[in-house]
Amino acid sequence: MLTIGDFSRLSRVTPRMLRHYDALGLLRPEMVGENGYRYYRQEQLSGLARIQWLQGYGFSLGEIGPLLALDGVQLLPHLRQRRLALYQELSRQQTLIHQIEADILRMEGIKMIETPYHVILIEDPEQKVFSIRETIGVDQYHDFFERLFREADARGLTQAGPIQMLYHDKDFNHEHSDVEAQMVVARDGPGVKIKPACTCAAVQHKGAYENLHLAYEALCAWLGEHTEYRVCGPAMDRYFGDPDNTPPDQLETGVLFPLEKV
């Protein structure tokens, strides 16, 4: 048996932290003597190492407790989820750094040359789609698409192309927006309709969804220079890749404005 001092010296974890782990139920001593001294088995060093390993990945002590009982297969989804959260945080930090750098250069009188989006005109083909439409907030979009998949599955419909979001409101509102989630499908069925072909101004956005406004700004700037066109339908975001399993900086989204010649 190891005293708490010996255990602390070997693991380089303070006795105070070991007592904290004990209080949280993460690592209880093998025995507590009548004098209150804590004693640990040498084998418990591996349990302590597992706690520190999970802490190193940013799991809180409250999250670590339930994870300690999991084997590798059971733990894998939690590690993937943590990885995605770290990618999302990294993307937010990189965006913030970029904005700060741009402001510093502007204040120093240096013009920063941005890589522009490449706006193109495309003929978006006719599509057979299953869709649901509601007035919801931006924070509900993910659950909205989850429901789209569930309802398509209940109707026996198979995805045969991208998913996309159409914005039907005249004014965009983060809390209440009239949106339509669509899934391209292969065959007819309940709730399936035809989205007609149309000419669109389009850009490809790579990166986190919270930066999609940059793609919209590029399209609006293009429209300001091409007044021979006007928007004739709802703007559309077309998603490529699974946001639950793709790092935010690797996500790809097409933004399309349906157009007609004036």
Write down how many β-strands occur, each being a DSSP E stretch of 2 or more residues: 12
| Number of helical elements | 7
- Which of globular, elongated, flat, extended, rod-shaped describes the shape? elongated
Low-confidence stretches: none
* Residues in helices, as a percent range: 25-40%
Report the end-to-end length measured between terminal Cα atoms. Answer: 86 Å
Order of helices and strands: EHHEEHHHEEHEEEEHEEE
Amount of beta strand: 25-35%
Structural class by secondary-structure content = alpha+beta
What integer is the average pLDDT? Answer: 88
Radius of gyration: 27 Å
How would a textbook summarize the main sheet? 9 strands, antiparallel
What does this protein look like?
- This protein has 262 residues and is of the alpha+beta class.
- Helices cover 39% and strands 27% of the residues.
- Strands 4, 5, 6, 7, 8, 9, 10, 11 and 12 form a nine-stranded antiparallel beta sheet that branches.
- The longest helix is centred in the middle third of the chain and has 36 residues, at 72-107.
Keywords:
single chain, 9-stranded antiparallel β-sheet, 7 helices
Q: What's the gist of this structure?
A:
The protein is of the alpha+beta class and 262 residues long. It has helices at 4-11, 15-24, 44-56, 61-67, 72-107, 141-154, 212-225, and strands at 2-3, 31-32, 38-40, 120-124, 127-136, 159-167, 177-185, 192-195, 198-206, 229-231, 235-240, 252-261.
